[in-house]
Structures are given as C-alpha cells and as structure tokens.
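Memo to structure team: turn this sequence into structure tokens by end of day. - J.P.
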Amino acid sequence: MGIVKITWVNSITVGVTKHIIYRDDIEIGQVLVADPSEFYDNSPIAGVTHKYEVQSSDSGGTSIDEQVGINVFNLLIPSEPPVQPTGDHPTLSNFKVLDGQPSRVYFDSNMPITASDAVGFTISDKTIVGIQTAGTGQTSSHYFTVSIAFNAWDNNLIEYNLGSNMESEVGGAILHGFTLTEIVNNIVLPTSSGTSYYVTTSGSNGANGESEGTAWAELEYALTQISAGDIVYVKQGDYGRENLDLDIQGTVNNPIRIIGYKTSINDISSNYYDIESDNWSTSEMPSYNGGDRSSNNAAGTSYPSTPTEYVIMENLQFREYSSGLLLYGLTNVILNRVNLKDIGSGYHKAINFIANTTVVNTDYVRADKIYSRILDCNVRNATGEGIFWMASNCLVKDNKVLCNSGATSDEAMDYYLCNRGDNSIAINNWAKRSSTAVVHGGYVGVRSDNSTVDYVKFGNENYYCERNLYTNNNIYGLGRMLKVRNVGSNYNVMKYNYAEGFDTGSSSSDGGGISLFGGVKYNVWENNYILGVTKAIRIYNNVESDQDNKVTEGNIIRNNIFKDCYYGTYAESEDYSYALDFNNNSFYNNTFYNIEYQNRLINTKGNINYSGNEYKNNIFSNVGLFTNTSSGDTITDSMFTFDYCDFHSVSGAPSGSNNVTTNPNFVDTTDFVPQVTLDGTQLTGVEYDYNGKERLALPQMGAVEI
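Reply from structure team:
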C-alpha cells in the first residue's frame, strides 16, 4: 500500500474557486483555490498505473480549464499501521452542552473538518443520532445530536474509538482516537419557585422565617419546615452544634436550595478558605461546630427511606464532628463551596455520597446514577475518607483535600478523592498529605470491592467501577496517588495529572505514583507527570473479595514522565493464597529519568504470573541499576519485553530488539525534550506526545517528541 501525492501549476486564476482531482476519470477529491495546490490519494491500487487529472471549476461548478504541470509522487509507507497524509490531523476540544440547545453537544476543531457519520463516538448515557460540522473553513460550532435531551443535572463524558469518516477539510487527514473527555454542561439549573426563608444567629424558631428580621435561629429547624422549591438563606456566624437531617426532597424543576451568605443574599461567589493557611472564619460563611470528633455526631445525614433529592447546598462550613455529610440513597445533589475541618476520630468520613445499587449478576452490582456534584469544597484533616462517592455519573471538580495531622494510621486520612461507580469525572482537584502526617493508604482513584455499608446493604456482591475520568488533578505526598484497584475496575482513564512525593528512600511508605492493584483491566494512564515517589509504577497482588479471578490485563501506561523515583516498576504480592495474572499490559513512550532501580519483582511465593507485557518507545536515562536483586526476591526481566527503547546511562540494561544507548541530550530535565533523533516505532494511541504535539511520521522514543 502507498500514498500518491499530486501537485499542479495553476494555469488560470480568474473565476476559479476550486480544483477537482480525477483518478482514471473518476473524481476522488476537491481542493479550494485558496489552499495549496496539492492532494493526497490514500487508496491507490497496488500494481496499477493510474492516470490523474486536475480540473479547475468556478462557483457554479462549470469546468474552466485543465491544469498543467501535474506531478505525481509515490510515497512509500509501512503497511501497518497506515500513515495519514502529511500535515496536522484534526483534533477536537471544548465539548459542551449549551442552554437552549439541550439535544446537542457542541465542539471545536483545530482546523476545518468534514464528517457525515459519528461512528466510534460514545457519549455516556446518551445515544448519538447525528453529526453536523459547521461548514467550509469553520472550526467551531460543530455538534452531535443525541436522541434524549440533556438536562441541567447531567454529567457526561465523550470518547472516540475510531470508525467515523471525520477528516480535515483539506488533505483528508483522519481524526485519531481519544480517551474519555468531559462534556461541560452549561444548561442553567432551574430557579426555585417556592418560598424564601432566612436563618440568622439572632433569629427565633418561633418567627415565620420569611425575612432576615423574622429569621429562624437554626438550619436544623428550617429543614423541617421546607418543601420542594423553597430556599433557605443562612447568614454568616457561629451556629454551634447542629445535626442536620437532610432527608429533604426537591424536584427536577423545583430544587431545594440552602445558601449561605455574608451580609446580603448571593454575595458569596468564591470560596474564601485557604486550606493550607487555615484562615477559617465564622464571619465569612455560616459555620457549625460539633465540638466532638469521637461520638455519634454527624454534621448532616440522610437515609434511603427518605433520601436527599434535588438539593443544592452552597457556602456552608462544618468542623469538629465525628462525621461530615453522609448521604445515603441520594440523587441530584450539589455541594458548592462547602468547607469541612477536623472531622472524625478513628475511621470516619467527611463527604460521603452512597447511592443505591442495581444488581448486574450474581457477583456484581453497579452504583446507581445520581447526577450529583461536589464543587469547590475543602476538606482539612478528616480521618478515613475525605471525598468518597459510591455512585455513578458524578462531577467532582475544583476541590481541595489536606491531611497535615495524624500520628497514627487511625488518625490520618486514607481516601482523599475516591469513587466506586461508573462514568464520573474528577477534574481540577488538589490533594495533599503533609510530611507531619503518617501515610494511611492515601490515594486518589477508583476502587471496586465487596462492601456492606450502614443503611445500604450489598450482600456479597462487588461493584463495577468503569469509565471514570481523573484529569488535571494535583496530588502531593500520598501513598498511592493514581490508583485503580480490584476486580471490576475497568476502562478508567487517568490523564494530565501531576503527582509528587516527599522522598524516594527504599523504605519510604510514599508508594506508587501509578498503582495497579489486583485484577484491573483496560485502564489508561496517559500524559501524567510523576515526581519523587518510591515506586513510579506499582503492581500489587492484594487481598480482595474476588480472589479467584485476579487478572490485570490490557492496561496502557503511555506518554508519562517519571522523575527522581527509587523504583521504576515495582511488583509485589500481599496475597499468598491466590495468584495474580499480569498479562498483555503496554508501556509506551514514557520517559524515566534518575531512577535508582528500574525493575523489582518480589515474587517469593511465585503467585504473580505474567506474559505479553511490553515496553516500547521508552527512554530510560540515568538509571542506577535496571533490575534490583535484593536477597530473597525472585527477579527477572522476563516480566516485560523491551523494544525500541533508549537505555542511556543505565546499568544492566535488558536485552531486546531495536534498542539504543544514546544520550537524548534533553533541553532540560523538567520538560524532557530530546535534542537528538531517537526513532521509535508507530503505535496506535500514541499519535500525540505528552504536550499534545502531533508525533512525527516515524515517532520518537520518550514522552516528548523532539
């Protein structure tokens, strides 16, 4: 197979609007007169001599003249995979639903595109029924049409797995596939049409609550008086201890709103609280102080019999409670600018959304879709769990979680940002453990396993956790930073995250930058930056509920940068009774720099089996020893194959094919742009580098293209 490039000389220009290209007297494409006089034929027939012609045409389609000086070039390319036409390929961005157009998902392109089908595109919980590009020369206002309209509560993702005829308007370059991406929902939430009530520190529960002058004294009391469509405005101040019963129900078009304010309603538009300096103030937002972290003392709860439904809570603060906001069986809840501090003693929770479940089969359940959001909230020093949602279709965005206290694991935070469910989005969040707090697990990521939670019983079933997106999050000092855990956690994507540890000592509990725990499948980690952790990539055979079905398979780790880590890839086993099969996992175009030991496999019990795992197009630079051979470990490089890799300044580099030992001569050791050519091999799914730059026709090794 090949590509034929055709160029020509414009013999006339007056009245010409386009050029029509013919192969063997059959039209195969058009080029606008304003564009370069060239065309790429992607489908010539091998062994056949074709005749090419170029005709000029005016706006009415009338043929004006045949062009002269036609040049035909045969471009030789590899047969697998095919190279697309020279020039940038289209990329899509800015997916959004606009208010007033609820049946469309609009998007932009980096160049004009054409498309007549949406094959290969998937929108979570929607069916695409059409696609419309914006027109000649346009790069915005393209859109997909869906069969059932979005509403203001929806949280959705889009991905593309190839198959559409979408291509660049000029040159016919195809769209490459892309992983899960957020669709921003701009549909305005419905206004509440009920009664407005007020709560102030000087109010009285004997008043009618309908003005600030006749305000109630307690939000706890107000919640017993309201119904769908009502708004409760709570003025700043110290309200002491209240335990909120959040068994309240709005409706899809008449939600209940609980809104804190400072001096006048709607005067808070940003979260004042700096979680690290701890500038907590009762004069900025209404504040509740439980006064006791150890007893049965939750800030707010709801239960499946009368769950929280269609409720918006904004601008509220809670501290010194045994638990924070625990909502069981909820749907359609939004927390916006809610701060929590010093929650729990032992293992407790700050923000916990727990949906009902639907049985999939005898072994697995799925968390129900609750279309809820946690936005711009802060959690400081909660024992156990910071923000944990056991639910599907949630948006968790712009939140901060900090643990800077806890001398024992019972006092320190375990789950900083974590979910158990499907189709959720965790984006632009920040999580940090300070060096003064011990590591208690400590992770951001997805976890599936057997669970029985108070008030919501799941029997012996496991959760599915699939197609969740973690992106643009910043993580510091956690034990397991970008983690996917346990059988049932599949097809999740973690990309564009930054994860930084505190030290890289061999005994440090500052564990995995990227963690694959138990039998997880078909997950993708791409374009992440991992700095200063003990184990850059951690593979772990852990004890979990579905013991006899642990297969870690088909995962992809690509375009990541790993710097200043003690171990590059670290595999170990906690479970000596059941084996873990680690098969057909791909490590593509990563850059490893300043690694003490690249590989370590602790497999003394022989219960980690492996086959088909490959490293391709990676750069390993400044590696002290490629394989660690500590006493008592079963160590082998045969866990992986290494092809088209650069081993620069590496002690004990493994064997493989097409490997080199060239100094990449990075421009610097922050961005890791090589200054020398390091030819790799073409790999599907790695068409762009760490920075989003389109790779060369012969892609280079490492995360960043030359």
